[in-house]
Amino acid sequence: MTAGVLGDIAVRGCAALSRDAGEPLAGSAPAMRRVIAVEHVGMWPPRVAEHPDEAVAGLAGRLRAEGVILLLIRRPGRRGRETESERAVFVADLAPGRSRVVRTTVRGPEDLDRVSFDLSAGEPVVDPLLLVCAHGRRDVCCAVRGRALAASVVEAESSVDVWECTHLGGHRFAPTALVLPTGYAYGRLDASSAIQASKAAGLGEVEVRDCRGHVGLEPVPQVAEIAVREHTGIRDATGLVVDAVDGPGLVEVRDPQGRHWAVDVRVDTGTDARPPSCGAALEPVTPLVAGPPQLLS
C-alpha cells in the first residue's frame, strides 16, 4: 500500500473510499434476525462481549449462545449520557415480512440478568425506531458520521424516535442505521434520507433509496428483493417473499398477488479495492449485483 493511499484512508475514512470505489449498498445488511437492544449510558468498548461491566458482558454471552445479538443503545447527545430510573429494552424478531418488536424496561445493569428473548413480556412497538450506529471505539467513521447523523435527525424532525447504537456491521457504509420494526438496514444516510426511511417504516413501507437490505435475509436474497422493489415500485414491507438460495444465481421473488420474478444475482469483480474499516488494509471488493428482474407469471 502506498503512502498516498494510507494518507487518504487516514484523512477521508473508509466510508468515503467505499463510496468512491462504487461499492453497492444492496446485499450488505448485517445478519440480525433476533436482536435485543438495551439502553446503556456508560462506555462502549470495541466489542460489547468484552464490556468491563460483568453484567453487560454476561448478557452478551448468554444471548450469543441463544443466537441473539445484543445492541447497546442511547439517546443522541448529552441526553444519552444521563441516567434514568428505568432504561428501555427492545426485543426484536426480525423475520422477513412478519417482524415483531416489543418494549420493556430494566432498572439498570444490575437488572440485566432478567433480560431474555421473550416477545410475550413487553408492549408491542408500532411506531418506528431509528437505530444509528455511533460505535466510535469500533470505527472512526461510525463515530464521526453516525453521531452527526443522529444529532441532525433530532434537530430536523423531533418526532423521529432516534437512538445511537453499537456496531451494525459495514463501517464503510457509514452513517448506517437499522429501522424497526420493519428490519431494514440503510447506509450512507443524511438527515433527509434517514427521516424518509423512518417515516416509510411508520407506514409499513420500505424506502428503497440507500437500503442495504432486510437483516433477516442472506445477502443474495437481499439483492434480489431490492432489485424487484426498484423495478416495480413495491414499497410494502411485507409485500415480497424471496426464496432461499445457496449462493449467487437465479433467485425467485413473489408477491401476494401471485406475480413471480426471477432475478439473476452475480458477483461483480470489477470494483476497486477499499478498506473494510478505518485503519484496515485495502481488500478486494466483490459485491453482489442484480440483473433486471424477469416477470415469470
UniProtKB/TrEMBL annotation:
Q: What SUPFAM superfamilies does the database record attribute to this sequence?
A: Thioredoxin-like (SSF52833)
Output the Pfam families linked to this UniProt entry: Suc_Fer-like
Protein name according to UniProt: Sucrase/ferredoxin-like protein
